[in-house]
Amino acid sequence: MIHQIRNTVKYLARKDYKPFLKDLKKVYQAPTIKLALTNFETLEKTWGSQYQIIIRSWRKNWDELTTYFKFPAEIRRLIYTTNTVESYNRQIRKIIKTKGGFPNQESVRKILYLATVDIIGKWNAPIFGWKKILNQLNIYFDREI
Questions:
Q1: Phi and psi at residue 103, in whole multiples of 5°?
Q2: pLDDT exceeds cutoff 70 at 33
Q3: Residue 59 domain-assigned?
Q4: What would the DSSP string read from start to end of 73-90?
Q5: Which of 48, 87, 117, 136 lies in the 20 to 30 Å Cα band around 12?
Q6: Among 34, 10, 130, which residue's Cα sits nearest to residue 82?
Q7: Whether residue 40 sits in one domain with residue 12
């Protein structure tokens, strides 16, 4: 979902960011797939003539984008907002980008190690609503704790 939203934003005029994204949020945060489709059709009526390429992209990818509606709301939020691997890569790129160069391979290994230790240290933060999410995961996958 986040990739589709990022792809969408690159085609928006600056002045349309907030109103368009407000309407789009009603699509991907809808409680049901039926309401999501209704909200998407409203978005299409409002913005379709101005941003045909965006609407076409969402229509083309609709089945993949709406897969997470099969899950309860608590799990959906976790699915479309969390991407640990991307976050890790972004933080590593940020650290490496600020360095001019590396004298040898050992220095690269050391900085990657230290960066990884720092990044992993931040993963201990609790996920908002984790107990409710865990409960829903156990119900959905029919498992006991």
A1: -70, -30
A2: yes
A3: yes
A4: HHHHHHHHH--HHHHHHH
A5: 87
A6: 130
A7: yes
Tens-place pLDDT, residues 63-102: 998 888 888 877 777 776 656 777 888 889 888 888 878 8
Q: Which residue type, as a one-letter code, is found at position 126?
A: P
Evaluate whether 115 touches 95 at the Cβ level (below 8 Å).
yes
In 3D space, the residue among 68, 60, 5 whose CA is nearest the CA of residue 36 turns out to be 68
Q: Are residues 96 and 51 in the same domain?
A: no
CB neighbours (10 Å) of residue 24?
Answer: 21
Residue indicated by tokens 């109103």:
19
State both tokens at 71: 């899950």
Helices 17-28 & 2-9, crossing angle to 10 degrees? Answer: 160
Write the pLDDT tens digit of every residue in 114-133.
999 988 887 776 777 788 88
User: Average per-residue pLDDT in the chain?
Assistant: 87
Which pLDDT score is estimated for 3?
82
Q: Tell me which residue range forms the domain holding 122.
A: 83-126
Number of residues that this document lists for the chain: 145
Residues 17, 55 share a domain: yes
In a domain, 136, yes or no: no
Q: What is the pTM of this model?
A: 0.64
Instruction: Answer for the pair 74, 129: CB distance below 8 angstroms, yes or no.
Output: yes
